[in-house]
Fold:
Amino acid sequence: MTYASEATPGRENEDFVAAGPGWVVLLDGATAPPGVDGGCRHDPAWLVRRIGGRIAAGLAAEAGEPLPDLVAEAIKVTGEAHAGTCDLGDPDSPSATVSVLRRGADAVDWLVLADSPIVFETPAGTVVCRDDRIDRLPSYTRAAVRAARNSPGGFWVASTKPEAAYEARTGRVPLRGLRRAAVLSDGASRLVERFGRLTWAELLRLLDEEGPAELVRRTRAVEAARPADAGGRGKRHDDATAVLVRF
Structure:
């Protein structure tokens, strides 16, 4: 496994990545809109370190616990750590995506909560594991997104509700013939998903042949070349984290 992680220029990195023998966990913190405090004294960087660190500890324990259980426990413990100082009932509380990959004896288990995809190169072709519910909201006004967050019919993120972990997309990919995989924050997947400059297969090849740092470099170059008013939902720049896993 190898990875690169780079903050939005001029800002703190709100992505988190950790890896160990046979596993990877990646979180992408959601930057709060201007003027929204979410009832919490902590920022997304604090949240991703707490939740991500707890998930990593569970993965390192090699207990074989189901991935949603690990994520739910991490959200629960993190909530308990600041319940006395923050309003955990505020829908605008800091939140994050979660993506987890764990290798077993004959298959790889994966979990994706919100929009940080995992991509596998299998003998049958490229398999993209993503959670696109945030892409299908009827409205993206601040009020509409607030109402849809961690709500049935909306989208789910790691924040203050442990039950969100059981709304994650999960699955298993056979290990036989598996060559490589990528775990990506949406800041590192945008050359495919937002800009259309690469296919998923080309992204995997770029990661393998030139490394995750080169993917981030190319992403920054495309961002810089786009007009400031190019439009489209999302930020001009974003924290970018890319993990390459070779099997």
About this structure: The chain has a mean pLDDT of 94. The chain is about 30% helix and 25% strand. The beta strands are 2-6, 15-20, 23-29, 96-103, 107-113, 118-122, 125-129, 169-174, 180-184, 240-246.
